[in-house]
Amino acid sequence: MMLKFLLKYVVELTGNKYSSMLLKSFAQSRLSKPLIRPFAKTYSINLEEAEYPISHYQSLHDFFTRRLNEQVHTIDESVHTLVSPADALLSDMGPISEKQTFYIKDQLYFLDEILGRLEDAKTYENGFFYIFYLSPRDYHRFHYPITGSLTKRYALGEKSFPVNTLGTRLGQSPFSTNYRVISELSTAFGNIAMIKIGALNINSIQLTHSRSEFNKGEELGYFSFGSTVLLLIEPSQSFKPLLKANTTVRVGQPIAEWVE
Fold first, then answer.
1. Sign (positive/negative) of CA torsion 129, 135, 139, 141?
2. Among 135, 136, 165, 229, which residue has the least CB neighbours within 10 Å?
3. Which stretch of 90-104, 128-142, 157-171, 173-187 has the lowest confidence by average pLDDT?
4. Which residues contact 117 (CB under 8 A, 6 or more apart)?
5. Which of 143, 160, 183, 224 is catalytic?
């Protein structure tokens, strides 16, 4: 129990900026290597999925941000489907109201606060949203959920609060106040906003894809520590969700489709 508490503290970090920075430095150093195996065991991580044997990783951060082998993810290739951008818990989903608001864990969110501009918020009025929570045990790289082109990318927010279940219920509206990187995507079915949300002061959102054009399933980046992806979908009468909330999903798995 004590070991799990320690690992959770190191990986999820703390609410204090300075202790978070110290823990980040520790997790990225070789001093943290002895924690890799206990971490993998504590969180029941499937080591056979990792790109390399566990001995390859030289720090807890290296292991935490590991890639997986090519056989793990199958990307649904249908042009009409939207796929999961992450290995995560699909913790919430639902319609966006005509007032550009929606609820996540009993908290009311306003699109203009999340996106920073009323003009951008209007695009998603009467649309749909998805929330993907990445726990410490999950693969922490995120991928494009559809083929298209990048029209805009910008960052908002500074300090970050927890994005786990307790944080989203009791925190200070983390999806509209946390540090976040917003990618506006143009697709054959309209616009999609892919919002990567930082957690707990580190704000460690790393982007690995710099091209304006992308294909479904391509890696976009990774979180150095646990976090969340929020998708906003432009309204369409042909849009049909395929899953329910509180479902575990994997990269490339269909979560919705546009029905002709």
1. positive
2. 165
3. 157-171
4. none
5. 143
Beta bridge partners of 205: 223
Q: What is the pLDDT of residues 8-44, one digit of tens each?
A: 554 444 455 555 666 778 788 999 999 999 999 998 9
Cβ-based neighbour number of residue 212 at 10 Å: 11
Query: In this prediction, what percent of the chain has a pLDDT beyond 90?
Result: 57
Active site residue 138: no
Question: Tokens for 33?
Answer: 């290597």
67-122 pLDDT, tens digit each: 999 999 999 999 999 999 999 999 999 999 888 877 766 678 888 888 988 888 89
d(CA 80, CA 69): 26
Phi-psi region of 178 (alpha: psi -120 to 50; beta: other; left: phi over 0): beta
Structure tokens at 231: 């998708």
Contacts of 218 (CB under 8 A, 6+ apart): 143, 144, 209
The answer to whether residue 227 is catalytic is yes
Can you give the pTM of this predicted structure?
A: 0.85
CA distance 218 to 146: 9
Shortest CA distance to 131 belongs to which of 100, 191, 176? 176
Residue 143 known to be catalytic: yes
Share of the chain residues as helix, strand and coil, in percent rounded to the nearest 5: 25, 30, 40
Distant-in-sequence, close-in-space partners of 34: CB < 8 Å, separation ≥ 6: none
How far apart (Å, rounded) are the C-alpha atoms in residues 136 and 163? 12
Which is the catalytic residue, given 87, 92, 120, 138? 87
